[in-house]
């Protein structure tokens, strides 16, 4: 194969202009297929009980993901270990389908001794990777379901002076497996100054402990100024300090989502009151990137570690022959089929 | 282990606008930036205007016989595979187009198994992709050299398909997307053309040759309806040209004869425009997807089945690829 120099065709506005081939229509073809296929996204939420996680999730997607909630009492909570609850909902907007799975982790941090409370969560994340690796190595790949966790919102209590030891330990344990987005919960307990101080404190501690949180990519040079400004604002507001609410309150003559206090109304969607809108904007505009980082970084890390560990065969130090690797994968696939399936 | 509770609800109603549809726009921007690869193979004996047609399709000198090569078209002794890549840009979309020519095909006295080098090349590209895919440290974007489309040129004899045409398409239609075209169709009158097309289609059917778009891969009713119309109009009878002439005050691509100008893009003269719209404007992405999701997967499954299974591997066991 040899390359020729880049042949430039001018920008054509009239499709029937001589010189117009028509492959500029390719993005539309891709678009049409994407709309038909729809998207899958898995969001995990982790944090102690009572930090407003469920309320926030409902607010984010303007849908009631948890319609019948029974809040367990303290006695019940002590005995429980961390559970994994996955709820899937299909949302459609302007013809685009999103299959959203929210993975809740009730029981996290509730026990008196929270020493081991996140091994369950890590096992869940790894299991989704394992499942995907298995499917990807299999024979029938037409309908692989992607249940890998694309993003984890970690809820930090606004009552402390920064990160707690549990917060640090947990984030360090999962930052190489999932995109971590730290969120300051129930931000209406803080004044604006206290909020800024807490944010700075948290960022310092994240740095100090070398915790890798999800980094928003910088806006590309060819994006418009508005988008660039939006990206800058988002980056400057991390970690987001949010308030959630399912109630509509009357304020300034209109109905808003908010919390009614004797001293005023906290409006969820008011950017001056909290970062809720920023969190939502970040999630939606970066959904694709979150999936890509999960696929290209976290999943590939898992996969290479897993393959190196191997099923029944140890890989040689010498770079393996690709056909040997293929055999390895095939055997990995068949031997996994023989082992017990996940409950 | 752990207990995992799953719940599912369909068709949740939203209580406001979130912006999920903007995800499509994000994807579109990303794919546009990344650019597209498209690999097209042209097969047919010499003199059928293959190179001219490809140049006409992409409105650039993309085939082997670009102006830099000089006029000599020597017929090689065996079938050769010659791939040439160009990057072309249109409306902000960059495409790396690779045209794979197969000189020598059908030109020998004895053309038995002359499709073997072609089959080998196609499978080699699948193998290359597979090797990269199973690598421990694999590339983020695996370079795609697989043949997405094979344009097969039928000689406009006016009678029927030749034995070689049938054999080639039978062997290769299960391995790659084949789009048969009737070359140099300006040698036939409209009636002769219709009769020939009809006869060719019947023969393809008789021999069970599934050309692209294949019936069995229609995704849904919408696709099926659209593709049915296309299948019934195939094979497209085309004319290629890279010369422009003045007709009725407009400049058109065509062939000037003593009795008139054959206009390449005039649907009354030939079906070039139909082929172009079908190949480039509506089905380009689908050609790639069928190659990846069907043909490549078939190859991969065969490889896994041949080499996998539960027999132990000995140190001397070297498997040869099915090339």
UniProtKB/TrEMBL annotation, chain A:
<keyword id="KW-0206">Cytoskeleton</keyword>
<dbReference type="GO" id="GO:0030496">
    <property type="term" value="C:midbody"/>
</dbReference>
<keyword id="KW-1003">Cell membrane</keyword>
<dbReference type="InterPro" id="IPR030379">
    <property type="entry name" value="G_SEPTIN_dom"/>
</dbReference>
<keyword id="KW-0547">Nucleotide-binding</keyword>
<dbReference type="GO" id="GO:0005819">
    <property type="term" value="C:spindle"/>
</dbReference>
<dbReference type="Pfam" id="PF00735">
    <property type="entry name" value="Septin"/>
</dbReference>
<keyword id="KW-0472">Membrane</keyword>
<keyword id="KW-0131">Cell cycle</keyword>
<keyword id="KW-0963">Cytoplasm</keyword>
<dbReference type="InterPro" id="IPR027417">
    <property type="entry name" value="P-loop_NTPase"/>
</dbReference>
<dbReference type="InterPro" id="IPR008113">
    <property type="entry name" value="Septin2"/>
</dbReference>
<keyword id="KW-0342">GTP-binding</keyword>
<dbReference type="GO" id="GO:0005737">
    <property type="term" value="C:cytoplasm"/>
</dbReference>
<keyword id="KW-0132">Cell division</keyword>
<dbReference type="GO" id="GO:0005525">
    <property type="term" value="F:GTP binding"/>
</dbReference>
<comment type="similarity">
    <text>Belongs to the TRAFAC class TrmE-Era-EngA-EngB-Septin-like GTPase superfamily. Septin GTPase family.</text>
</comment>
<dbReference type="GO" id="GO:0032154">
    <property type="term" value="C:cleavage furrow"/>
</dbReference>
<protein>
    <recommendedName>
        <fullName>Septin-type G domain-containing protein</fullName>
    </recommendedName>
</protein>
<keyword id="KW-0498">Mitosis</keyword>
<dbReference type="InterPro" id="IPR016491">
    <property type="entry name" value="Septin"/>
</dbReference>
<feature type="domain" description="Septin-type G">
    <location>
        <begin position="37"/>
        <end position="309"/>
    </location>
</feature>
TrEMBL record, chain B:
<dbReference type="InterPro" id="IPR027417">
    <property type="entry name" value="P-loop_NTPase"/>
</dbReference>
<keyword id="KW-0963">Cytoplasm</keyword>
<dbReference type="InterPro" id="IPR016491">
    <property type="entry name" value="Septin"/>
</dbReference>
<keyword id="KW-0547">Nucleotide-binding</keyword>
<dbReference type="InterPro" id="IPR030379">
    <property type="entry name" value="G_SEPTIN_dom"/>
</dbReference>
<keyword id="KW-0342">GTP-binding</keyword>
<dbReference type="GO" id="GO:0005737">
    <property type="term" value="C:cytoplasm"/>
</dbReference>
<comment type="similarity">
    <text>Belongs to the TRAFAC class TrmE-Era-EngA-EngB-Septin-like GTPase superfamily. Septin GTPase family.</text>
</comment>
<dbReference type="InterPro" id="IPR008114">
    <property type="entry name" value="Septin3"/>
</dbReference>
<feature type="domain" description="Septin-type G">
    <location>
        <begin position="34"/>
        <end position="306"/>
    </location>
</feature>
<dbReference type="GO" id="GO:0005525">
    <property type="term" value="F:GTP binding"/>
</dbReference>
<dbReference type="Pfam" id="PF00735">
    <property type="entry name" value="Septin"/>
</dbReference>
<protein>
    <recommendedName>
        <fullName>Neuronal-specific septin-3</fullName>
    </recommendedName>
</protein>
């Amino acid at each position: 194969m040899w390359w020729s120099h880049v042949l430039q065709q001018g920008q054509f506005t009239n499709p029937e202009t001589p010189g117009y081939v028509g492959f500029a229509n390719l993005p539309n073809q891709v678009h049409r297929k994407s709309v038909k296929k729809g998207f899958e996204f898995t969001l995990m939420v982790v944090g102690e009980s009572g930090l407003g996680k469920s309320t926030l999730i409902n607010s984010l997607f303007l849908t009631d993901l948890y319609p019948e909630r029974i809040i367990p009492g303290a006695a019940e909570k002590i005995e429980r270990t961390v559970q994994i609850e996955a709820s899937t909902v299909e949302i459609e907007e302007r013809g685009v389908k999103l299959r959203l799975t929210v993975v809740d982790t009730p029981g996290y941090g509730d026990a008196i001794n929270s020493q081991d409370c996140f091994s369950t969560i890590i096992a869940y994340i790894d299991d989704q990777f394992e499942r995907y690796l298995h499917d990807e190595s299999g024979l029938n790949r037409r309908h692989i379901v992607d249940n890998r966790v694309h993003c984890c919102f970690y809820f930090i209590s606004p009552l402390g002076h920064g990160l707690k030891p549990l917060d640090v330990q947990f984030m360090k344990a999962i930052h190489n497996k999932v995109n971590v987005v730290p969120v300051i919960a129930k931000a209406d307990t803080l004044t604006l100054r206290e909020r800024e101080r807490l944010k700075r404190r948290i960022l310092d501690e994240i740095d100090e402990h070398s915790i890798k949180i999800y980094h928003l990519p910088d806006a590309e040079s060819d994006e418009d100024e508005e988008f660039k400004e939006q990206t800058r604002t988002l980056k400057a507001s991390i970690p987001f300090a949010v308030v959630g609410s399912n109630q509509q309150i009357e304020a300034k003559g209109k109905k808003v989502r908010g919390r009614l206090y004797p001293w005023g109304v906290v409006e969820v969607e008011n950017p001056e009151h909290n970062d809720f809108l920023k969190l939502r904007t970040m999630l939606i505009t970066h959904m694709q990137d979150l999936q890509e980082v999960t696929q290209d970084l976290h999943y590939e890390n898992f996969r290479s570690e897993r393959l190196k560990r191997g099923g029944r065969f140890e890989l040689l130090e010498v770079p393996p022959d690709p056909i040997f690797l293929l055999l390895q994968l095939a055997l990995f696939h068949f031997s996994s089929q023989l082992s017990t399936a996940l409950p | 282990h752990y207990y995992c509770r799953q719940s599912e609800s369909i068709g949740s109603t939203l209580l406001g606008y979130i912006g999920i549809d903007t995800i499509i726009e994000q994807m579109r921007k990303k794919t546009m930036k990344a650019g597209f690869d498209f690999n097209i193979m042209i097969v047919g004996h010499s003199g059928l205007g293959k190179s001219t047609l490809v140049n006409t399709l992409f409105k650039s000198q993309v085939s082997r016989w670009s102006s830099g090569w000089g006029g000599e078209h020597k017929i090689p002794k065996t079938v050769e595979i010659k791939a040439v890549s160009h990057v072309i840009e249109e409306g902000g979309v960059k495409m790396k187009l690779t045209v794979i020519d197969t000189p020598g095909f059908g030109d020998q006295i004895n053309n038995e198994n002359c499709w073997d080098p072609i089959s080998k090349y196609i499978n080699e590209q699948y193998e290359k992709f597979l090797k990269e895919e199973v690598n421990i440290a694999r590339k983020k974007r695996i370079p795609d050299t697989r043949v997405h489309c094979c344009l097969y040129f039928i000689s406009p004899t006016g009678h029927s398909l030749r034995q070689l045409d049938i054999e080639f398409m039978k062997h290769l239609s299960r391995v790659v997307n084949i789009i048969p075209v009737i070359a140099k169709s300006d040698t036939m009158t409209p009636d002769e053309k219709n009769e020939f097309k009809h006869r060719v289609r019947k023969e393809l059917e008789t021999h069970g040759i599934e050309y692209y778009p294949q019936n069995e891969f229609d995704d849904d009713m919408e696709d099926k309806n659209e593709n049915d119309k296309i299948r019934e109009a195939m094979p497209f009878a085309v004319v290629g040209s890279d010369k422009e002439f003045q007709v009725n005050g407009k400049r058109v691509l065509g062939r000037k004869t003593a009795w008139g100008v054959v206009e390449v893009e005039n649907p009354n003269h030939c079906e070039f425009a139909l082929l172009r719209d079908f190949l480039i404007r509506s089905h380009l992405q689908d050609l790639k997807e069928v190659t990846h999701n069907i043909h490549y997967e078939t190859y991969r499954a065969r490889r896994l089945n041949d080499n996998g299974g539960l027999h132990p591997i000995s140190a001397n066991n070297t498997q040869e690829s099915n090339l």
